[in-house]
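Retry 2 of 3 after timeout on previous attempt. Resubmitting structure tokens to design endpoint.
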């Protein structure tokens, strides 16, 4: 549908818990289309959540295809109302975010996850993932809970100025 501007910290929507979508209607599908178009317009972007484009709804897209840290890859994942069912094996890694383009930080996240949500067809589906894709899923779900990676850094000393363009890491 359209490429949307990405909100940046300290915008208030980024700190809100997003509202459930519950019904996949034309409005929800339009939102998902906007998320896909916006994510794909930024080379290297692997995920985007609705609050990042100013919509306080529980929706996100993730696609880690071709990323050098990818192990499991389900291609484009478009999910409404995600629920984390299982997490395992936490690991520390550097993260960035389109909404905080000038910083990165070391964040501990589960290496393996099982997430369930509603697809664009209105059906419930699950994604079992690991490594970079699991990290991207959890990063986007955090956005839906009003959290940024800065809320999860292991220590304030583990926040760094970004060395590469913001399009090279997670949204």
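Retry 2 succeeded. Sequence:
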């Amino acid at each position: 549908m359209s490429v949307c501007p990405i909100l940046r910290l300290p915008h208030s929507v980024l700190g809100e818990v997003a509202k459930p979508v519950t019904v996949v209607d034309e409005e929800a599908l339009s939102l998902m289309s906007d998320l896909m178009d916006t994510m794909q317009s930024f080379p290297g972007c692997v995920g985007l959540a609705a609050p990042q484009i100013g919509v306080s709804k529980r929706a996100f897209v993730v696609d880690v295809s071709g990323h050098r840290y990818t192990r499991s890859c389900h291609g484009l994942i478009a999910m409404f109302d995600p629920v984390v069912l299982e997490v395992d094996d936490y690991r520390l890694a550097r993260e960035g975010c389109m909404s905080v383009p000038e910083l990165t930080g070391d964040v501990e996240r589960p290496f393996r996850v099982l997430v369930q949500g509603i697809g664009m067809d209105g059906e419930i589906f699950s994604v079992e993932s690991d490594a970079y894709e699991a990290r991207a899923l959890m990063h986007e779900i955090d956005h839906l809970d009003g959290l940024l990676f800065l809320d999860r850094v292991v220590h304030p000393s583990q926040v760094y100025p970004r060395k590469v363009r913001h399009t090279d890491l997670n949204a």
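Attempt log closed. The CA atoms of residues 2 and 66 lie 24 Å apart.
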